[in-house]
Amino acid sequence: MKTIANSFFKFFILINILVLISCSSDNDNDDIENSSDLNITIDENPAQGQFLGIVSSQLSGNSTFAITSQTPEEAFTIDNATGEISVNNPNLFDYENNPVLEATIAVNNEITEDSIEVKVSLNNIDDIAHFLNVSRSDYLKTPAGQWVKITENEYNILAESLNHVTKSGASDLDYDNETILTEPSANNISIANNNGQVMPKESYVFAFKYFAYDDDTEGVRLLQSTTSSISHFYTALSAIIPAHGSGDNYFVLKGNNFRINGDIGHTGLYSLNRIGFKRIPNRNYNITPNEDFGVLRVPRSDGVYIYQGLSTTQIQWD
Fold first, then answer.
1. Coil, strand, or helix at residue 297?
2. By CB count within 10 A, which of 28, 49, 189, 259 is most buried?
3. Domain annotation for the chain: domains and CATH numbers
4. CB 308 within 8 A of CB 168
């Protein structure tokens, strides 16, 4: 009888131990299963510090949050106490280069650690429209293939903010050189600078600036070579430039999908009116009279026409 009682007692103790282990295991799983990953979608080009969401976990007690990995690096930042995740480097939130950004967050309450995945998907937007300010409304209502007048500041922002930008025509050094007098060119000419400021293969022109010498200037056309030759096979890019006044003028081309085919490309300019010109030694250009810009026949030296094109090898607009 005593043996039977002892056996029953041991069996009872064993059952209770198993029940306690099972309950403890269920509680641990509840903490992990109730945590949820964070999946959001935003437009590309957010502001630095933009709030993205709150990483939540059901771990009991006070928890701390830390980023253990992220792709690309330095994209996100997190508040260690609240779990609020924000944009750290806005330049990385670029649809053309990083359409999806991800991070792994460790949540710790000093007893248990949880892991949560963050995924941010980007909407592709027109980057030119995004970076314009004063001229954005004009740009948005302008049909594709047309030029839009913009400000100097907008031109510089586009040059700095779009991907893979190259400057052709006149260099910044020559264009901005205020120690050299800007003279008027002849009327009704087609020209192209030939000083190494070229576009790489498969480039798209999206903006340009130039110095107009006359008021009420109209009929200006930006030229683009279809081969690597400085003298041959130019074509006019899209529509005629809108009428404008004298001095520095800045324009953006909406929706350009025409790219160069040669190993390099040149930009040129046709104008019925006079263009700014600087006499600078060891600079070269090609010129032809009238609107016969298919071939710029005549090579000349010791001067630079004051114009510059912006191009990129990556379409970043609608």
1. coil
2. 189
3. 33-123 (2.60.40.60), 127-312 (no CATH)
4. yes
Contact (Cβ atoms closer than 8 angstroms) between residue 234 and residue 268: yes
* pLDDT tens digit sequence for 189-220: 999 999 999 999 999 999 999 999 999 999 99
User: Contact at 8 Å (CB) between 141 and 241?
Assistant: no
Dihedral of CA atoms 165, 168, 174, 175 in degrees, nearest 10, equals: -80
CB 315 within 8 A of CB 165: no
pLDDT tens digits, one per residue of 212-234:
999 999 999 999 987 888 998 89
Do residues 237 and 266 make contact, with C-beta atoms less than 8 angstroms apart? no
Q: Rounded CA gap, 205 and 223, in Å? A: 10
- Burial zone of 311 (CB within 10 Å; 0-12 exposed, 13-18 middle, 19+ buried): buried
Spatial CA neighbour of 35 closest among 54, 52, 59, 64:
59
